From TrEMBL:
Residues the UniProt record annotates as site (Critical for catalysis): 159, 229
Signal sequence bounds: none
Residue numbers bearing the N6-acetyllysine modification: 141
Highest taxon listed in the record's lineage: Archaea
Pfam families per record: Iso_dh
Record has Thylakoid as a keyword: no
Quaternary structure and partners: Homodimer.
Cofactor(s) named in the record: Mn(2+); Mg(2+)
Alphabetical keyword list: Glyoxylate bypass, Magnesium, Manganese, Metal-binding, NADP, Oxidoreductase, Tricarboxylic acid cycle
Species lineage: Archaea, Methanobacteriati, Methanobacteriota, Stenosarchaea group, Halobacteria
Protein name per Swiss-Prot or TrEMBL: Isocitrate dehydrogenase (NADP(+))
Length: 420
């Protein structure tokens, strides 16, 4: 496809799908990768991450052909709209991309561009690796115990946006339907009431849990935990759990065992070649993150549980400036940091680019370039451990030196050269 503003670089090649069924990609050594720097601090962390990812690609004999694409404020300047079609098409065509944060106005204005991008491209799994880097201040005593990856369903649950406002005719129609036709007459209080639907489908649950199991198997992880509130919501949250066990049994029967089988057949010690599939109720899971951190590895969750759990887990390893993320679809991925556009710090070359850089590391892993990904992680960890860090970490550590965003990134690049 040809683009009006966001021209693809001539020296790059397009990533293609190698296997329709598995979503496996054919990745050239010089792939074209669309990048959205983003709003607010995106203008600081976007270029910083690009420099570091370039260095890691070059150090491992590859070359990223970046294609700048635009959304949010930068798109309004160039296209007079928030999310131009050609940005969406560029990401769709090139399959793997990275973006910085995009601002969402609260209460009024346009809908979240982040949600729109994930939905339009059907990026149904929001994936957040949560591991501790040496030298990052944490509120817990043993942050190094956490090494988890959250898979949060991205397209349904209460986020599907099927809601009726209190006092409207539509809300009253739904109330009447529920009370008169479905026979739930005792459960809704009289007077104005807002109503919402929580769809959790077999299709949506299974494709998310399939991604989590595939990831766990490919990365030699020990367990996948299905996190649900099925004791209360039997036909949505409990169904998510049941579909998870069904999928594990039907599609991964050879590779997986349940927790019951672990104790009944293996005395609590899983053989090396078996992945344990277990489940936990969400409120208990929030406690267990703190009290039994090492028992958990990959988590698979419906949308709302995933939202709460992944932020809580992120706090344990150092918070927003650090936490990376990536969204997976079938044969498609969009990496993005967990943090937002922090407008008050924008354009000051001040904030921490680690979350965006480590999101890039996830992207490199997705391309199958885990040697480059490991270089990025090791260089960032060394840099933070050295105490030469951005303001957010410097203010929490005695004797640390404060660096600008760009200085931090340049020093990480030097470390990549030294490590390679
Ligand atoms: P935020 O942008 O994540 O910032 C909240 C605070 O977190 C900042 O003030 C700063 O704390 C700290 N922080 C965030 N990123 C940092 C970094 N890279 N380095 C150091 N500190 C960092 O959250 P928000 O203020 O709630 O949201 C602002 C806008 O971003 C909203 O429009 C929101 O909708 C949007 N948002 C977008 C995404 C996305 O694009 N995926 C995600 C979340 C939010 P201190 O000031 O205390 O140092």
């Amino acid at each position: 496809m040809s683009y009006d503003i966001a021209d693809a670089p001539e020296d790059g090649e397009v990533i293609t799908l190698a296997d329709e069924e598995t979503g496996e990609l054919d990745v050239p050594e010089n792939p074209i990768i669309p990048i959205i720097h983003g709003d607010g601090i995106g203008t600081d962390v976007g270029p910083a991450a690009q420099t570091v990812l370039d260095a890691a690609a070059e150090a491992t004999g590859r070359d990223i052909a970046w294609m700048r694409v635009y959304a949010g404020e930068s798109a309004r300047d160039k296209y007079d709209e928030n999310l131009p079609d050609e940005t969406v098409e560029a990401i769709r065509e090139h399959r793997v991309a990275i973006k910085g944060p995009l601002t969402t106005p609260v209460g009024s204005g346009f809908r979240s561009l982040n949600v729109a991008l994930r939905q339009t491209l059907d990026l149904y799994a929001n994936v957040r690796p949560t591991y501790h880097l040496d030298g990052v201040p944490s509120p817990v005593k043993e942050p190094g115990e956490m090494d988890m990856v959250s898979f949060r369903e991205n397209t349904e649950d209460v986020y599907a946006g099927i809601e009726w406002e209190a006092g409207t005719d539509d809300a009253e129609k739904v109330r009447e339907f529920v009370e008169d036709e479905m026979g739930f007459d005792e459960k809704i209080h009289d007077g104005p009431v807002g109503l919402g639907l929580k769809p959790i489908s077999e299709y949506g649950s299974k494709r998310l849990i399939r991604q989590a199991i595939e990831y766990a198997l490919a990365n030699d992880r020990d367990s996948v935990t299905l996190v649900h509130k099925g004791n209360i919501m039997k036909f949505t949250e409990a169904a998510f759990r049941d579909w998870g066990y069904e999928l594990a049994d039907e599609e991964y029967g050879e590779e997986t065992i349940t927790e019951d089988e672990l104790w009944e057949e293996y005395d609590g010690e899983a053989p090396d070649d078996k992945l344990v599939v277990k489940d936990r109720i969400a409120d208990n899971m929030l406690q267990q993150l703190l009290t039994r951190t090492t028992d958990y590895d990959v988590l698979a969750m419906p949308n709302l549980n995933g939202d709460y759990l992944s932020d809580s887990a992120g706090a344990q390893i150092g918070g927003l400036g650090i936490a990376p993320g990536i969204n997976f679809g079938d044969g498609r991925a969009l990496a993005e940091p967990v943090h937002g556009s922090a407008p008050k710090h924008a354009g000051q070359d001040k904030v921490n680019p680690t979350a965006m850089i480590l999101s890039g590391r996830e992207m490199l892993d997705y391309l199958g370039w885990s040697d480059a990904g490991d270089l990025v992680r090791d260089a960032v960890e060394e840099q933070i451990a050295s105490g030469r860090v951005t303001y957010d970490l410097e203010r929490q550590r005695d004797g640390a030196t404060k660096l600008a965003t760009s200085e931090f990134a340049d020093e990480v690049v030097e470390r990549i050269h030294d490590l390679a």
